[in-house]
Amino acid sequence: MEAAAEEFEADECYTDNYDVRDCTETELAEQRTEWDAGAQERIAKAQKEAEDMTKMMGGIDPTDPEAGEKLRELLLRHKGWERVEVKGDGVFDVRYVASGNLSHDFSFPVIEGFPAGTTFVEVILRDENTVRVNALGYSAQEDANPMSAMMGGMMGLASLGSLGENANNMPDMPSMEGTFTIVTNGAIRANNTDEGSTTSPRGEVLTWEVDGSTQNASTALIKLAD
After folding, report:
1. What angle do CA 55, 52, 36 make, to 5 degrees?
2. How many Å separate Cα 62 from the centre of its chain?
3. From CA 69, how far away is CA 85, in angstroms rounded?
4. 10-residue mean pLDDT series, the chain (226 residues)
5. Is 97 exposed, middle or buried (0-12, 13-18, 19+ CB in 10 A)?
6. C-alpha to C-alpha distance for 214 and 221, rounded to whole angstroms
7. Are β-strands 130-135 and 121-126 bridged in parallel, bridged antiparallel, or unpaired?
8. Cα 84 to Cα 76, 109, 137, distances in angstroms
9. Helix axes 148-161, 39-56, angle to 10 degrees
10. Please, what sign has the CA dihedral across residues 168, 171, 172, 173?
11. Which of 69, 91, 122, 175 is surrounded by the most beta carbons within 10 Å?
């Protein structure tokens, strides 16, 4: 309760003309009382988000100083992960490679012990040799991006960190910034890029710029060669 109350910040007070004014001692006391009354609820919410985060991480506690190395070792046990380097502050430099005929739906990543919904990219097979590519992990829209639960969990752990000894172990959350690119020799039937495809020696190229303000997940419908 005391730790939660220490985070109290008073709301602004206004005149009848909606101009900002200094709050009275009585108003500040009322705000403090309301804040204190909600402390247990805030703590319970933070604990729930922390538990969800640990589940999202396959049981790895992100406040553990060795969490990055444990995740690195876990990923390298999976086929396709050629390089996993821990850069710090929740950032990893990875190289993942998969090749072969697309005979079934594909989802990335699939990690042992992690929930199935933690998906960055999915490729869905349709009839007539057509595939739908959805890059769900590259969107800031909470209902579209399954990684939002992980971000929420990290915020919960940060809140709990202020209540316990793990406060200094919380990594800074990395921001999303980069590109998502599809290169194909198939026929592009639909996509939501800003400018459509460009041509390269390897085939048609679709590119999306993605960052924390990206609202729509990158998506494309492609007819593959028979």
Report:
1. 150
2. 14
3. 9
4. 58 91 92 85 76 69 79 92 88 92 90 77 94 89 51 45 47 75 96 94 94 88 90
5. exposed
6. 20
7. antiparallel
8. 7, 13, 19
9. 130
10. negative
11. 122
Place of tokens 């206004």: 14
Which residue type occupies 58?
G
Domain boundaries, the chain: 38-223
Instruction: Give the closest residue to 210 by CA, choosing from 145, 159, 160.
Output: 145
What single DSSP character describes residue 159? H
Tokens at residue 131, please? 């595939």
Q: What's the one-letter identity of residue 201?
A: P
Strands (E), 37-159: 81-88, 91-96, 106-108, 121-126, 130-135
CA gap 167, 218 in Å, rounded: 36
Separation CA 129–CA 226 (nearest Å): 7
pTM over 0.70: no
Report the half-sphere exposure of 203 (CA within 13 A, side-chain side). 13
